[in-house]
C-alpha cells in the first residue's frame, strides 16, 4: 500500500507515504498521504472512514474526499493525536 497513488473524488492528490497503526493490536488507524506532486511539501492524514476503495492491482487508493477536502485538511505531523504513538516508518 505504501507508494500507492491516491485519488480523491475529483482527481489525483498524491501517494501513500506511510501507514499509521495502533502498536497494541496492529490495526491500521489511517494513511499518511504525501501531496508533493500536487501541493508541494505537504502530508495529510486519512482515516479508514475516508477511504472508499483500495485496489492492489492498480496500486490505487480512492478516497471519499474531494481535492478541496484534502487541500484544506490539517497537515500531518508526528506528535499530533495520530502521531508519535502510532507512527510506523515506511
Can you walk me through this structure?
- The chain has 90 residues and is mainly beta.
- The chain has one domain (5-88).
- Helices cover 7% and strands 41% of the residues.
- The protein has one helix and seven strands, in the order ββββββαβ.
- Strands 1, 2, 3, 4, 5, 6 and 7 form a seven-stranded mixed sheet that branches.
- Strand 3 (28-34) and strand 4 (43-46) form a beta hairpin.
- The longest helix is centred in the last third of the chain and has 6 residues, at 67-72.
- 23% of the residues are buried.
- Mean pLDDT is 86; it is low at 83-90.
Q: What is the fold's blueprint, element by element?
A:
Layout: E1 5-8, E2 11-21, E3 28-34, E4 43-46, E5 51-55, E6 60-63, H1 67-72, E7 87-88
Parallel strand pairs: 1-6
Antiparallel strand pairs: 1-2, 2-3, 2-7, 3-4, 5-6
Amino acid at each position: 500500500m505504501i507508494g500507492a497513488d491516491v485519488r480523491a473524488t475529483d482527481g489525483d492528490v498524491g501517494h501513500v507515504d506511510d501507514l499509521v497503526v495502533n502498536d497494541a493490536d496492529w490495526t491500521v488507524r489511517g494513511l499518511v498521504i504525501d501531496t508533493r506532486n500536487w501541493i508541494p511539501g505537504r502530508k495529510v492524514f486519512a482515516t479508514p472512514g475516508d477511504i472508499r476503495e483500495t485496489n492492489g492491482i492498480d496500486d490505487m487508493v480512492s478516497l471519499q474526499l474531494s481535492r478541496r477536502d484534502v487541500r484544506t485538511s490539517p497537515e500531518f505531523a508526528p506528535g499530533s493525536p495520530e502521531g508519535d504513538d502510532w507512527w510506523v516508518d515506511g
